[in-house]
Amino acid sequence: MVKAVVTGGAGRMGGRIISLISGTDGIEIVGAVERKGHPLVGKDVGEYLGLGATGVVLEDDLAKCAKNGDVVIDFTHRDAVMNTIRIAAENDLAIVAGTTGLTAEETAEIRDMVQKTRCVLAPNMSVGVNVMFKVLENVAAILGDQYDVEIVEAHHNLKKDAPSGTAVKMAQVIADSLGRDLEDVGIYGRKGMIGERPKKEIGIQTVRAGDIVGEHTVIFGGVGERLEFIHRAHSRDNFAKGAIRAAMWIVDQENGLYDMQDVLGLKNM
Ligand code: NAD
Fold first, then answer.
1. pLDDT of the chain, 269 residues: tens digit per residue
2. Pairing of strands 214-221, 148-155
3. Nearest CA to 115 among 99, 97, 92?
4. Which domains does the chain have, with CATH numbers?
5. Which atom of ligand 1 is nearest to 122's Cα?
6. Contact 234, 213 (CB under 8 A)
7. Active centre residues (catalytic)
8. 239 in ligand 1 pocket by Cβ < 6 Å?
């Protein structure tokens, strides 16, 4: 049985991860952590999540429950995740870090810190999205330069950044597969007399409307036909389930830094 500690245990993702773990065989919750001063600290996690009493109390310091666990799952904030990784490494706890917004320097620091443990770091833990990255890489390689690539992403009206990190990653995967530099060929919206479409352009368009959880459409437009690949997230549960799958996988790996492509065995396919 894999013993999991969840940081950000009262957050949107942390709460869903704890709830879904409670219905998953082979993994159990042994600890949950929030920021100091959070109003739910000291409460039983099952009670505030509507699961019934679990005996696991929300703590305000990972060091208090790190020793109970095999793996920590972190969906917090970029200011908090580095501390989670430091404490986890000190306590030989494996790590699944889903928190986004890390700089390249922070990612490099994580790579150093996890020499003493093992960590899955992935800004998108959806199994479907990660499979789609692999499919896009292969499709782009097969179609080559004859098909125009356009990506359209749609999210709810509260999302602050654009385009989504997932859309940019899709563009990057396709650019790499086609031997293009995304810095040169990426175009983020069009207006006015723009002229004919440059052949190697990769368009990335953003829609913001209502409560759309997340939708990514990738079009390969050819002559007389087009291919469309669509991923639709219906809820945050697809990320939470991916994080749980990563937690059950990482506990048996060698020390080092991994991503969801490793978890899903997609790297060498
Ligand atoms: P949220 O604001 O609902 O939850 C974050 C929680 O972390 C909050 O409850 C907050 O109080 C808590 N927190 C902050 N500092 C802390 C600390 N020092 N120790 C413990 N807990 C602390 O946000 P969310 O929607 O759950 O997203 C959390 C993060 O996960 C964001 O960075 C988001 O972009 C990312 N995310 C990643 C994926 C993925 O697939 N990798 C999917 C969804 C969200």
1. 999 999 999 999 999 999 999 999 999 999 999 999 999 999 999 999 999 999 999 999 999 999 999 999 999 998 999 999 999 999 999 999 999 888 889 989 999 988 889 999 998 999 999 999 999 999 999 999 999 999 999 999 998 889 998 999 999 999 999 999 999 999 999 999 999 999 999 999 999 999 999 999 999 999 999 999 999 999 999 999 999 999 999 999 999 999 999 999 998 77
2. antiparallel
3. 92
4. 2-121+236-263 (3.40.50.720), 127-233 (3.30.360.10)
5. 41
6. yes
7. 155, 159
8. yes
